[in-house]
Amino acid sequence: MAKTEEYLRKPEWLKIKLNTNESYKGLKKMMREKNLHTVCEEAKCPNIHECWAERKTATFMILGDVCTRACRFCAVKTGLPNELDWQEPERVAESVEQMGLKHVVITAVARDDLKDGGAEVFAETVRAVRRRNPYCTIEVLPSDMMGKKENLEILMEARPNILNHNIETVERLTPRVRARATYERSLTFLQRSKEMHPDIPTKSSLMIGLGETKEEIINTMDDLRAHDVDIMTIGQYLQPTKKHLKVQKYYTPDEFAELKDIAMKKGFSHCESGPLVRSSYHADEQVNEAQVHEEANKYKKA
Question: What are phi and psi of 293, to 5 degrees?
């Protein structure tokens, strides 16, 4: 078998500039003190220094740090999760307040061991963050919560500013790349969230470089638009360890720019597309400012 490019030198455009200023150090110290997890660290995100040090945004990972699924692209630990920590929502909210974050993404490990998929803790985290930080925008990035509509309803009633659920890969590759999740279930999950609250933008992310074709990428865009998804991100898959799926192709910045142009012509309101783009990359730019103030005022009056 021929070596894939993953074992060769990565292209120049994948080199990362590190920035460990006081904002970055302070956020990392606080995470440890409050026993919190971030997907930025757990999933080895290449943008952690930019987001923590420069943009003052962060992606908290709630419901523990052990996932019940074992997706072949993901670096997060898998196994039997711990008991729920009902103090976690308040600790997340306190951290957001102390760091003065202007945008927060709340994601979670998949909790297929729970009847509600973790929806109630998710919703309470949104409410806790907004109580302490009314002008901080909140994006949620849940699993498919086993496709149960009632679980999604619990989360959506907390009214996040953006509902993000990742399609991850094209339909043909889904069984090989994702564990338990299905392509159609993810599309249904996104459609239902829009039906529940039409004013809350929906978002999804696609990672490329796993062997998909350009036609399949474009078909995925069409499927997302057909299910009323507003925002899309497209990024390069990077193999986190030798145990994970190998990279089949490194796309160039020009190819990512072309995909962004195609996506915008398809009708997405916003598309981030680039080699180092991840699901929550520049997420603070994708929020409707009017909606932010409307939600903040509701909490002030309450």
Answer: -70, -35
**What is the residue type of 272?**
E
Instruction: Indicate the residue type of 138.
Output: I
Confidence bin at 186 (pLDDT 50/70/90): very high
d(CA 243, CA 75): 10
**Sign of the alpha-carbon dihedral angle for 276, 278, 284, 289:** positive
The mean predicted confidence, pLDDT, of the chain is: 84
Q: What 3-state class would DSSP assign to 140?
A: strand
Q: Give the total residue count for the chain.
A: 302
3-state secondary structure 227-246: CCCCEEEEEECCCCCCCCCC
Q: Where are the beta strands (DSSP E) in 30-102?
A: 37-38, 57-62, 66-67, 77-78
- DSSP conformation class of 168: B
Q: Which pTM does this prediction carry?
A: 0.84
